Amino acid sequence: MTNSEPKVGISIDIEADGKQFGHLSVPHSRNESGWGALHLPIVCIRNGDGPTVVFTGGNHGDEYEGPIALLKLVRTLEARQISGRVITIPALNFPAVMDGTRVSPIDGVNMNRAFPGRRDGSVSQMIAHFVQHRLLPACDALFDIHSGGKTMMFSPFACYHRLPDEALTRRARDAVAAMAAPISLELVELDADGMLDTAVENMGKLFVGTELGGGGTTTPATIAIAETAIRNLLAHLGVIDEKPLSREARGLSPGREMHMPEPGCFLIADDAGLYEALVDLDTDVREGDPVGQIHFPERPGREPAVYRAGTSGTTIGRTHKVLVGPGDFLALIAHDR
Ligand code: CA
């Protein structure tokens, strides 16, 4: 057994044609189950040759559009409808999804900082290791569906990264455009190390993502955006024999193409207290405009600390939680491209 051979097993043959519901088996010996394993659902749908697209939801366990849209996908998509292969993990951090928490309740690991994973690591690290060494080499494209979770709220966007590989950047931008979300964002990460995104891109493969709503819930609109993005990506890549359905064809306003050209796009807290947002999402602000303020409940006589836009643009993300502390994300401001 080589060192890259995952300890995680898989109950289905992802080389086989047809639709298979199976699970990953992650060793998880514990008080309640001495020889136990964690079963993590995976679905493979294959029909002959064609691209392999991997869909992941529940990378963070309190982000629900991905798991719900992907559960709907795997129940309705049949092998005869596709050319190629669709591998779906609706709840990548399965213990976190079942616990309603961002990170795993088993090992406290943030799945999206765990890549490339560890063969002999904790449960989350072993899952990441399996994805890194078994799924990524087999895939052509990966779509990781995120939302704001319990602590953040976003104006729904699909996203890609600007990469040193310009051709790959262009492919990702084209794929995101086809996904037809209200906003197509060239996203800059605060900390890209350890992310699934980075693992996929480092292999030279196509990565696309989303941030859809948040607050630990879903809306009919955010679920619809996820489902359209999934369907349109499969159409764009030729896995299903359809044309991507544009926003215009669905009677929707044209999408916005946005980017984050400067560090001032992120607003981060320096103070601990109660955050009051002064502008809502989708608001145009000028650099220096007040975006929010932090109140000090222990010192009623103290004026709140005002937080101002570090750049001119549109607010497309904000904290959902009110009780904030130094280093917490407060707001995201993006520019039209
Ligand atoms: Ca997330």
Plain-language structure description:
The structure is a single chain. The chain is an alpha+beta fold. The protein folds into two domains: 9-259, Zn peptidases (Aminopeptidase); 263-336, Beta Barrel (OB fold (Dihydrolipoamide Acetyltransferase, E2P)). It has six helices and 18 strands. Strands 7-8-10-18-16 form a five-stranded mixed β-barrel. Strands 15-14-12-17 form a four-stranded antiparallel β-sheet, with no helix packed on it. Strand 7 (152-160), helix 4 and strand 8 form a beta-alpha-beta unit. Helix 4 (166-179) packs across helix 6 (220-236). The mean pLDDT is 97. Calcium ion (CA) binds next to loops.
Key features?
single chain, 337 residues, alpha+beta, Aminopeptidase, OB fold (Dihydrolipoamide Acetyltransferase, E2P), 2 domains, 5-stranded mixed barrel, 4-stranded antiparallel β-sheet, 6 helices, 18 strands, globular, binds calcium ion
Write a compact overview of the structure shown.
The chain has 6 helices and 18 strands. The chain has helices at residues 65-76, 94-99, 123-135, 166-179, 196-202, 220-236; strands at residues 9-10, 18-27, 37-47, 52-56, 84-89, 141-147, 152-160, 183-186, 206-214, 256-259, 266-268, 273-277, 284-285, 290-295, 305-308, 313-319, 323-324, 329-336. Helix 1 crosses helix 6 (220-236).
